Amino acid sequence: MSELNKLAEAVFRGDFAGVKVITQQLIDAGTAPLAIVNDGLLAGMAIVAPKFKAGEMFIPEVMMSARSLAEGMKLVKPFLSDAESANMATFVMGTVKGDLHDIGKNLVVMLLESGGFNVVDLGVDVSAEAFVEAIKEHKPAIVGMCALLTTTMMVMQDTINAIKKAGLREQVKILVGGAPLYPEFAEKIGADGYCVDAVACKEMATAIVSKL
User: Fold this and answer.
1) H-type helices in 139-182, by residue range?
2) In what order do the strands lie in the sheet with 118-121?
3) Theoretical Cys-Cys bridge with 19: which of 68, 74, 93, 144, CB 3.0 to 4.6 Å?
4) Over 80: is that where the pLDDT of 146 sits?
5) Quick one: 41 and 69 in the same domain?
6) 105 is in which domain, residue-wise?
């Protein structure tokens, strides 16, 4: 088994220490940073996503894999060229105002980062104004909003309206998700897509940026 395959396996198993050791060994050996990312770190998460979707892995295991990948990315990111880093599409993510739930959001963030996205995590209880400011500052390709309470679902509509009012709606795609949401609601509030879970969000986001 090659070192890159070992790295992918370590990410899949959620082996934090192993990922750090192997990533550093590859860097020291002069392996191309982009190869470490694509053929090692991301290859490991590519095993995870279909298993999670098929019910063969569960959220705690997926989060361990994603955190392992993040440890490797911390080590290799400084060695990526400016051009390689710039190719990572930016995704602004947050739980809307009035909602403090973050487990689902955190899983989305981890899976997006594992897919090569530069994720700006705004956290929870994020106001419409904060989303607008984040779009102005980071110029993302995609904005993601989540809510776990039926009482905060309509805040998504308010946020989209604020983005429109700021003249930024045509610059970004907007994806929404969360337990109480459904496709018709996403369409009604003017979102570009409804994500049933974190894997679906990653797949939809990847499809969007592939067309940019």
Assistant:
1) 153-165
2) 118-121, 90-95, 142-146, 173-177, 193-195
3) 68
4) yes
5) yes
6) 88-210
